[in-house]
Amino acid sequence: MNVAGVRHILDTIGNMFPDADCELVHSNAFELTIAVLLSAQCTDATVNKVTADLFQKYKTPADYVAVPLEELEQDIRRIGLYRNKAKHIQNLCRILMEQYGGEVPSEHDELVKLPGVGRKTANVVVSNAFGVPAIAVDTHVERVSKRLGLAAWKDSVLEVEKKLMKQVPREEWMLTHHRLIFFGRYHCKAQNPKCQVCPLLDVCREGKKRMKTAKVRNDKENNSK
What we know:
By secondary structure, the chain is mainly α. It contains 12 helices and no strands.
């Protein structure tokens, strides 16, 4: 896609969601890391409900390590894959205490070494907690990028990230990440996207196909009356 086309998409989504920001409630880099780890295959809304109590009980890595694994599991049992995530959290906290003085590292390469922290989580942490430009590709960002032609249908998550980094000005990476999430979460949904009122229908491959299918269906229904 050419520069003008990308700019059109970024500006349109920016006008729709000018205040898009991280919806995971946190007060520091450590809480954000735990919240993002918990958010895998789980909604931010559910994570926020769980962490409202969790972050009152556990303030430091030492707090998470001090309790039996079963107790931590019960504290996060409303979260999907809670048993694995509880293990990851305790192992992560041990490493933070042993290797990083109890602090979350600000370097991407160090973050991805931590249990339960993949590339997406590391990108969210470095950008939101440390102000390092990054684009984290979650399911919303991947879906929207492919529908709007910013990435190819067959692209892997890493390929989507690389293409977005090439097309989006570096100083807009974090903002674009949040806005693409909001656009995918509240407008261009997986099952029921708002194609009929979408200001980007002209460039959306998925939207054009859906609208064409809807028109054919309506025409058939009208002709059968």
